[in-house]
Specification:
Distance between the termini: 41 Å
Shape: globular
Order of helices and strands: HHHHH
Number of strands: 0
Number of helices: 5
Length: 98
Amino acid sequence: MDPRMPHVGAASREGVLDPGHVAVIRKFHRDLPARTDPGQRDQAEKQLVDLARWVRPDELAVAAKRILELLDPDGAAPDDHDAARKRFIRFDPQGVDG
């Protein structure tokens, strides 16, 4: 498991998280701005893992969204680091129409 998510790793080893829960928490980490305090990031992850023991992944996604709103209420514009993290390029086969 990703070392940046120690609580997820520990809960996964215990067998209490299913792949849906892990996906929700990974998305939560991706959506957090880089400027988020590491202590807040860790505490939020711990809360989500504790909650995941009792709720379905879709319910966990609602909680993750709410925690994200609390940690970043303004939804401030991403900094360069955030933009670089989310940047990607995809190559697909060329279609018959060019």
